[in-house]
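Handover notes (outgoing to incoming on-call)

Open items:
1. MoaB/Mog domain-containing protein: sequence verified, structure written out, both below. Nothing else pending on this one.
2. Nothing else urgent.
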Amino acid sequence: MLCKKLHSIGWAVSRVTVTRNDIDSVAEEVERRKSTDDMVFLFGGIGPLHSDVTVAGVAKAFGVRMAPDEEFEEHLRHLIGEKCSGDKNEMALLPEGITELLHHEQLPVPLIKCHNVIVLTATNVVELDWQWDCLIELAKSNGILELMDPFVSKCFATTLSDVEVAQPLSKLCAQFPDLYIGGYRESREGPLIITFEGKDLSRIEAASRSLCEKFHPGAFSEIK
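MoaB/Mog domain-containing protein structure tokens:
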């Protein structure tokens, strides 16, 4: 789901990783990706609770300590009442010196940004849609994310075998290096699905037309 949302703003996803819910696992993955990728998104934690180690893992990856954040604590206080107060409130601990709170009027608690790492607290599709929409609105106003031309794609189904299409697809990949051209099957007996993805629809149409012309008419049917 998040991959589709990133594609909709023109971002290519380099890696998707599932980590264990422990500080070292989160820290190791963030440390690995923060220096090689433009942006790292974390989601699927359960929010600012004692059993969610997401932000602690981010802090360790950047080599900073967790410290009380008065502004974040104030938001939590409004959300759950006076039970959220004092220095012992672990829910309000955030990576010291690198945390930027991303405020949106529709969000009861701000999103957390640490340099090029953004923490989404979404645990389901509805929450992810909600937080993502807020993040995009913020990106349009303050530029925290660069919004680029979205990726577009075309898909074709064929009953041709993998062997029959392998060489033509390899040649197309060399001929259209700006496109991602791939194939998969939804089931072992199902048709082969060929995908063309990129940012220039005319290039996608040219590549798909070139493939279709190499075989008999009707060998490929476009999937709308």
